[in-house]
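Priority: medium. Attachment 1 of 2:
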């Protein structure tokens, strides 16, 4: 009786977790699509695709869990076990990749953002600029790799020494800001590297914990189904 109730409850939980898994998968895929120019590898969005595959398989798994708790069919119980095994493989793979990619992307981001900053040509004009680094700085409200002083280091490597930073470093509330170093309070304090790392690691860790929690619930569902199968022994092994 307890196993039946638990299996029915987990079936509804599986249905509810479809949205969480799909959200995490789409989030990771879109994030690496938007910032793909910062990475050399194209497979970093793989955890997101695995999460979407998991979300699709969770739907029939939840249906079988509720159905088995009402009417114990040997075929349904066997299919349910196979689906649980497939889900565990997908989720543990997605969780492991998400956790490792979180650490791996940090070093790549630092070199990529640093390269963009040092290759950027800017002048102390009213031209807002539309380069990749300008788009990142406006979107994330950041300045430089670690802070605005990175632009001073970049300018010291060239013959021209502008006494300003790109206008994309300006805070949104200062519409008159032109990147003048005499008004540092108008510039974004935080560097782009930390904001990018936090953004990407947060999405990866969200996916990691979703997959981890779901894997534990699936082990419980497999145990509950095993208890029900034990009370209805096999008469032969044709189902295998």
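Attachment 2 of 2:
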């Amino acid at each position: 009786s307890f196993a039946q109730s638990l299996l029915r409850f987990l079936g509804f939980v599986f249905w509810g977790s479809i949205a969480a898994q799909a959200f995490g998968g789409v989030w990771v895929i879109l994030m690496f699509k938007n910032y793909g120019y910062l990475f050399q590898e194209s497979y970093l969005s793989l955890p997101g695709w695995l999460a979407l595959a998991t979300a699709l398989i969770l739907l029939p798994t939840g249906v079988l869990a509720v159905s088995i708790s009402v009417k114990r069919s040997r075929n349904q119980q066997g299919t349910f076990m196979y689906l649980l095994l497939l889900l565990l493989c997908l989720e543990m793979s997605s969780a492991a990749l998400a956790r490792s990619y979180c650490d791996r992307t940090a070093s790549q981001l630092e070199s990529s953002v640093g390269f963009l900053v040092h290759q950027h040509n800017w002048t102390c004009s009213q031209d807002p600029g539309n380069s990749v680094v300008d788009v990142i700085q406006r979107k994330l409200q950041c300045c430089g790799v670690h802070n605005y002083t990175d632009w001073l280091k970049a300018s010291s490597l060239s013959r021209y020494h502008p006494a300003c930073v790109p206008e994309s470093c300006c805070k949104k509330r200062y519409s008159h800001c032109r990147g003048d170093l005499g008004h540092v309070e108008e510039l974004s304090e935080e560097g782009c590297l930390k904001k990018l790392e936090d953004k990407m690691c947060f999405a990866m860790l969200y996916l990691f914990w979703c997959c981890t929690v779901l894997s534990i619930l699936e082990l419980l569902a497999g145990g509950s189904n095993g208890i029900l199968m034990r009370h209805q022994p096999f008469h032969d092994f044709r189902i295998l």
